[in-house]
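Dear colleague,

As promised, here are the two records you asked about, laid out in our usual form so they can be pasted straight into your sheet.

NAME FIELD: protein one
SEQUENCE, THEN STRUCTURE:
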Amino acid sequence: MKSIENEGRRAFMGGVAMAALLLGNRSLWAKAPGGRWPKVAPPQSPRISDVIEQLGRTRDDAYSWMKFIPESGERNRTNLPPAVAKMLADENAYADALLQPTEATQAELVRAMLARGSDAAAAPALEKDGWIYSSAIPPGATHARYSRQRGGGEAELLVDEGLRAKDQPYFRSTGHQPSPDHRWFAWAEDVIGNDRHRICIRDNRTGEIRTIVDKDAYGYGGLVFSPSSRWLFWIWRDARNRPTRLYRTSVDGKVTDLVYEEKDPAIFMSVKRTAADGFVALTLAGPETAEVRLVPARDETAAPIAVWPRKTGVRYEIDEWDGSLVALTDLDDAFDMQLLRLDPRDFRTLATLVPHRAGTPILSILPFKRALIRLERADGLHRLVILRPDGSEQVIAFDDPAYAIELPLEQSYDAASVMIAHQSPKSPRRWIRVDLASGKQTVVGRQRIENFDPHDYQVERLFAPAPDGEMVPITLLSRRGAPKDGKAPLLQYGYGSYGVPSDPEFSIPALALVDRGWRYAIAHVRGGSEKGRRWFLGGRKFTKRNSFTDFIACAEYLADEGYTAKGKIVAYGLSAGGLLVGASMNIAPTLWGGVIAKVPFVDMLNTMSDAAHPLVPLFRPDWGDPLADPRAYDYIASISPYENVRATPYPPLLCTAGLKDDRVAYWEPAKLVAEVRRKSTSGNPAMLMTDMDSGHQGSADLASEYKEKALFWAFAMRCVA
């Protein structure tokens, strides 16, 4: 559910004329067999042969004409080829027409979500050097306001994102942070929808806000103030949207210098300050390698120096604690990570702080002067460990069947306690201060949820047997006392790629669905990291099929145990989770009552054969290289959802896309929908909805998020009505 919390949003654009025609002709609303869907003729995309020869293999991609990459600039409404523009408009109009009978249900769901409250982003303030920084979504608003105050004085507004988002078709921000001297406040914002940010800086003395980088910045872990507060280090994206350069810009915006340029397209970049402000750390990482380069605080204009040169098979991150550097690394086959103490001058290993423990992966660390905090998993569940300079440790864990712990960033290195956030599918966020000396926990804030009693819900942690004997974890949310009689419909979410876990977080949209008699399941399939690095490797590259069979095994187990029934399960996945649900749909089409695929990665073979794609070089270790490796070609061809559509009774399918998305472009779901529509024997609809203003993520506001979830849930309800 981590990937669910702030996903892309839906905007019904395009095809207005056709939609008006359909809506105006009531005779077209005669019900299809079963009474679920209006009888509307779907668009028919032409098939134009495009024979591709590759590694001695031949395929015909008859929908390749749908792909459009402009020679310069971004895709938008005005530069689309006429055939593509018509296809997207027709698809949007068709989806709107089919889903028109669900509009009342959608509205009810949105009201139910909004009635629970809108302060999901509110959190207790964090104190740094006497300043208290906080953010919250005001009542009735959908965007956050960032503020600070000192010594009990009047709050000072830093950023009102509602004002900055006003009249923008798209708005998403990230990276909010004060400078170490508190003179400045910076953040990155995307007002286009293509993940290319501008960076803004506020002078806290005058209140003036300036755009210090006007375009092409990378906002996600891509900006940080220098320890002196005189410079802002930031990452630039090239024409293919790859983060490739680190720049240093003076806070007055007058001087910008290139610090480092990465030539390897398979390397990703992020930048941060180390915990005690001793260094600026540039991390260069791929799926199987890493290199950290440090700029010391004593010489902020120096060239960054590598701690360890990159080496295939060795991943590491660097921070500082207790007068030394700390490396979180898998060196020497520590696949679930270990912690090493390094000399800050010559980077040699001084000691092992935490040894490798197979099956207990270390996820992240947060150093404080008084203790080193690490977040890890034990038996698949989060726990916090306090490591003190004297070597003593204290474990902080919780009794919930399934839960998630978060470590908010920007905590003061000098703090005597660490702030954590705890949540579960039936427990809203609680912010807890944990004393670093004693481990004492103090709840300092709670997410306020109206019209909600956690005792009305039940969370279970279940395990489904996979075909090869592995036990796949499931997090299940139900109304308390719901019978196990096989009658309840169920929505099953999964992701299972890149080692990204699907943590059991609190979700107002999930509650809204469960309140209507549904169950909500998260399938923690292989390819994620819920059970450590080996769980990830067991669903990666040539073992990727395990992710799909795990997902199917979870659904079958839930049906066999009476939590639901086959045919009443709606599969839901996004991005690489779209690959999961698309492949599972091909393998077991009659198991699912419906399938929701949000910006889905479903055209694997063609995308991984595109060396110009911004992410292909980076993720070849995860998927294989069908341009150079015949085995990889054949394996990808055997699992790619688009390549494996067949004549079979498919369930209803709803796919979404963002026109400006360069991670998973609109033509991937467009091809899948066209092929399912052509071959399905069931008569069930296959729909594509494209947001013409967004990219891989939608505009970040609660109203948009709730509208999208209401659309998905209403579609799911229609599927099993």
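NAME FIELD: protein two
SEQUENCE, THEN STRUCTURE:
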Amino acid sequence: MQPLVPATARGTILVTSRHRLAGLAVTGFRHLDLDCFPAATGAILLAGLLDEDRQPLGEELLHALAARCHGHPLALTIAGAHLAAHPRRDPARLITRLIRLAEASTASDPHELSVEGVLQMSYEDLDATTARLYRGLAEHPGAEFTSEPLAAGLDVSISAVDRGLGRLVEANLVSETGDERYRLHDVLREHVQALADQDDQDERLTVRRRMVEWYLRRAAAADKVINPFPRRFSDVYADLDTSVFDDAKAALDWADTERSNLLAAQQVAADQGWTELVYQFGEVLWNPLRPNYAASELVRSQFLGANAAADAGHILEVVCRTRQGFGLTNLGRHEAAVDICTIAVERADEVSDPWLQSGALSTRARAYLKADDPHTALSDLQRSLTIAEEMNDARSIALRHRRLGETALHPKIADARLAAHHLRLAASMFAGIGDDIGHARTVLHLARALTLNGQAAEAASELAEIEQAVHDYGSVGYLADLCTVLGEVHAELGDTAEAARRYGQAIDYYTAAGPGADKSKAAVIDRRAALDQPTA
């Protein structure tokens, strides 16, 4: 290629290739990746490839073909070439044929131009090791990936996978989406699946399971770092290396980045009938999903875990049912949450496990509280606290006092002094066992109780002492809650500028948390708007 480059700066050269041709960069070429087009843009590209005298194609047909090509530039170009080469054929029939051709694992005519043919040429250029890696991508549970789960699945070194991924990027068979993160385009995924279907299926299952188990163990490590205190039941926690995460923030960030892969891995385990992996995922994903407004994903994960544990007769059924109820409450499905938690309470009573009994009752109380029934919640909480005290479990006792404090703040009870009493007890207990984030979350509720009791200045002081701990933990959900309470406190103190600033921070955090936080964000937006309203 280089000998064809003119020795002048007056010309422009455009080079296209199935490969990256990275060596051209030294001669001044600028590399440009063509991204995938939305269906509307793809339809415009297809239309532009047609001759002016060709029978015009309807927009609906072009959109259908563009969508089937997944917006992939190569697929669109090949489809357009077929359309242009057959100007007299019925367009609807031709497009149907093109779609079928794209869906076929091999072209009927080896000389016929097709996406499959071009991809096959790129694949056949690969060495055997890289070709195996490429086929192995079919077993990865999610769309994006890093080298580590692939190395675990294929039982090769990470460095070997890194080298192979570099070759696949060079061949444009894999796309880079970030620092050491990659993605397989939908068109390429179909090609990979077709190739993998020709491999030994037992070996494919082995590779798939290794990848799923890698995600399970890494998620368990993240879970332990995010919250090291709760009792755990799964075998995956044995001999677990948590040193891969420096702190809770790093673990939360990893879990947030890999959320779709983790959920996909649990679903793959469910689809394959790997029951023990499914309910273990239910346990390990609790702490990674809970803090950051992922209630829908949490409910789905716990539903799968509970059903798998029930099938296996494993005690984690109670844990997952309880946590499923927690997630349903966050989704506003209070009646369903009460029903699921009641099942958890009954199952906990059947197995006579006090830790599970106390937790299930407390979570059902939370559902009653959110359903505007604080008095029924108090009944469950008092029984839950009694069980925790009989166990002499300091953290469980602290959790029950915190929930009793929250319940006392409900408008139908509105006893700020009682709330502050329970919340101070809880805060002291959390501090005593070294649970910094448990302590910080309790202080958030305490600040609300103090503010309602006319002690906003003291509330501000309490919040100042925990702000750094919440920032260090790194949960956008907890940061949003902190800034919301700070806004409420400063509004009560009459500092509307600081209240508006804190509400603005909360809105930013809720936005970062995603759609699951939209309701909370809307409430804060209303509070900020109310700052500008004159008081009566």
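A couple of things worth noting about protein two: Residues 109 and 117 are 10 Å apart (CA to CA). The first strand starts at residue 144 and ends at 145.

Best,
R.
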